[in-house]
Records
---
Amino acid sequence: MHGVSSYVEPPEEDSTKFISLAKDALNRWKQQDFSSEAFSVVNRVLELNPDEYTLWNYHKRFVVDKIERVRQEDPSSFQEVIEQLFESEFNLTQRALYRHPKAYSAWQHRIFLLKVAKSSLPPTIYDNFFKRELEICAKLLDLDDRNFHGWAHRMRVGEIKGIQITREELDFVTDRIYANFSNYSAWHHRSRILPVLFGDQPEEYNRVIQEDLELVKQAIFTEPEDQSAWFYFGWLLRGAPSSHAPVSILDVDNEMLKKELSTLEELLVLEPKCKYALLMKFHLLYQFGELGNAEALLTQLQILDPLRNGYYQHLKEKMRQKS
Amino acid sequence: MSETEWKLSSRDLESLYLQNEDTYPTETYLLQRQVERSILKIEHDKLRGEDRLNRDEHREYLHQSLQQLPTSYQALDASQPWLCYWIVHALDLLGDKPTEEEAKGIVEHLSSCQSPHGGFGGGYGQVAHLATTYAAVCALCIVGTPEALQVIQLDKLYNWILSLKNEDGSFRVTEQGESDVRGLYCALAVAYICGLLTHELVENCSTYISSLQSFDGGLGGEPFNEGHGGYSYCGFAALCILNEYWQATENQSVPHSLDIKRLQFWVINRQLELEGGFQGRVNKLVDSCYSFWQGGLIALIDYWIRKHSQSDQVSFKFSGEDLERYLLRYCQCRGGGFRDKPGKPRDLYHTCYALSGLSVAHQNLKESRSSLLPKINYLVNIRVERWEFAAAYFGNKNSLTS
């Protein structure tokens, strides 16, 4: 994968060996064979190929059965035994994910484990699991900061635990953005958590948006060709609406927009060919009703960005219909 | 605005690179510049021949692959139906097909992947999975004989798909598996092909799809995920399938709250100028497979707009010429097959989706031309003829006409 380093590589098997191992493992699943011998076969296959989803179901069945069994047969050592069980399951998926950071079934298995842990272990124990989950995500995002599984997992962990987004999460995202302004996944994550964090506090939200405007402008002036900052900037100018609420609670007034228009003009002096600045300026001029100037921008854009020629042409026609 | 500006193939790619060279060196940019340099290297290669589709080499690679798959494919042990689909669909786009013996082997193999409880898994003895079911059903449609389609046990298939449905409208990809839009798309696509769409099956699907849109307009795999080409295709293609169903049963459009205009703006900005191909997400690298996911998505949006005749929406096609340049000039491998991008090895997945993308590109050229790749049904990514055969076989009244 692009630029992603891997963890420790277990030795490969040749394909004949792998095929016979996989066959063996699937047989053990069919027979519900949970002997230690079976485990070593199944886990070897998962190590080599974490996408072998049937075998993750094998583990799920084992976990559920063991919890039931220990609860009935040996309740006094339940906590100890089951905590150990979860540790070994988490370790298995962790090894899988460090090697294959995008293996759907490995991520899914962790979700399963978190849910089951929550319903069978006391908070003192499962809280640690949840805390560690965020650490694992952070580590995997260090390896690849665009791994959407890692970002999504952070949200899901919160959901399962039943907690709202925290300030810590916002700090985490801010750090990632400062580490790499082009990390679009971080900007996106930010766009998700801000409405949740401040959704019911309009004044606070307005303040945060103003701060974000300054943050995103830093990014834009550092690198005017970077789409990430521009898309985020555009979202802010729309009033930072949550995807699930069609109308923003913010007041995006003409004063604010006029201020941003002058920011764009400042940038265009330095970077006259910046496509996104021109397009953003177009949208603002259009909103202010300055159609003549707006159309000139579209003509410029058609030359600068020929791949989107049809889109700009359409905007022109739409404008002409209005005037 | 002069017409000559439109033809990017005559545009100075070098100047595009130099314009961007002096950028703040985040890791993202270093990777992007690396790809651009690899493209320019090919451009400057005096031994580079004309852009042409190396049909014979690709056919040979595909037929060979049917016989024997290299070790690296052990990673796809849980995806065997995909291998069948990638190969037969690629052959089909090249106007070729498996030999009678190969076809027999494919049908037998896929049959062995079918679960006694319905649906197809990654291989013999594996639990059924929606993605592999989609691949298996499509591959059987492409083989295109009644014997092939008879393999599919329809009743069990329907019940199994229904058993995976969640309350929020999404589908788990397998029992106890993850839920994301791939599951929903594969469930609906298979039901669409096999004539199994019902009210029960489609309930809440449109709501789920609408919940996938992020602030930039793209669709993520799950609610709260960032816009991504593969998932955007899945979500929108699924919406189009739902629309077909609603038109046929309720004589109206499927209700939804997707901002299609914003989705369109997002996707048309995924085509990269210098490379000509598509990226999967904002600030990621070009990849030949997105030729289909993103290119096909643009085509579907275009179709939707024409069908709904909303004058407010843009009807816009992308640059087929530039996409073709990316695929033919930079992604074809010696000995056949396509790769993700220069520097990567070929593989069957990219071969399938590069060719699918090339077919889309051929439907989006400024000037008409002969010897184009055959047309695809964009909803399910099989040739129109295979779709029609399957529709007739399964007694489908919903068929998408382009």
---
Amino acid sequence: TLFPRTALERDGFESADPWFHCFVAEDPGVGLVGYMLFYYTYSTWDGRQAYLEDLYIKPSYRKSGVASRMLKSLAQHKRSIILSGVSIPQELLARGCSRLNFSVLNWNETAIDFYVKRGAVDLTRDEAWHVFRFRKPNLEELASKE
Amino acid sequence: MVPMTLVERGASMSDGIAIREARRDDCAGIMKLIHELAEFEKIPEEIVITKDTLERDGFGSEHPWFRCWVAEDPAAGLVGFVLFYYTYDTSDGRQAYMEDFFVTASHRGCGVGGRMLGCVAQVFLLLSLRDLFQDFWDFGGFGGCLGFRGVVGFGGRGVPEAEVLARGCTRLSFHVLNWNRDAVDFYVKRGAMDLTRDEDFHVFCFAKHTLEALPK
């Protein structure tokens, strides 16, 4: 099911305190060919962090360095640069973030290789961290018990 | 319906332990609990942040980096805390993530943890209500059909756009160390799912030096 465009517009662009930030890779004459959606988070050990929720590149643009440049642009704090007709804004360390976190499905070997090759650590494998989740009905039940 | 009184009052009293939103002057007490939690989790990393960092990032501006609720025993000071922040999912929208949830050893097993989690759940549901009313005015054309239907009991897929816009946080995510059986039991008993076990999600991170060294 498609997530409504209006919700993205409201949550990302209509307040001074957006729910997420989004960078896109644009090929002039073609349009958007990739995007990166992230938000700022917090660790009670090393403070300000960011979480990479989505990183997606259209199939025909993969293995051409676009994803790599997008990830790099996220890590740097220089102004936007234009390379080979693809322009990418840059941010993250300027805010004082000490880490970029994200989740990967363990069977997605292409993605895992991409990240591990660049120094990412699998905290589930190395430190036994598991991702848990409460869904809304659970939250409602928890709230009603008070 | 969501009981409003708890969050309106900003506190809950039970067995003498008050559960309330953290204030700036709680940061020293929260840091103490953070250190206890780190010891409990056997994590070798140095804790880099200080009371000043917490004050700056949680209470120093209009856009805090986190929210925090504490449990306070008048005789003992802060005995528990839950620290969380708002996140986003491109299929379900607004979410929340629970970064830390801890009750000091002497106060475990007497319901403090359960009550803290209940308070946080109410905050998320109250967020739904606030947005509901805001959206009603912003998107006037929906003609009052949002009502309170939008707050309770959403389906997953095929939810009408109006309801997606009206809902607040739909999920609360968090991490647990797999060997921490007490914590795992506590959450599973309340309906939480282990996405690592069930859906093969792995948690990754880039530390600062690897971010700086990212190749083009």
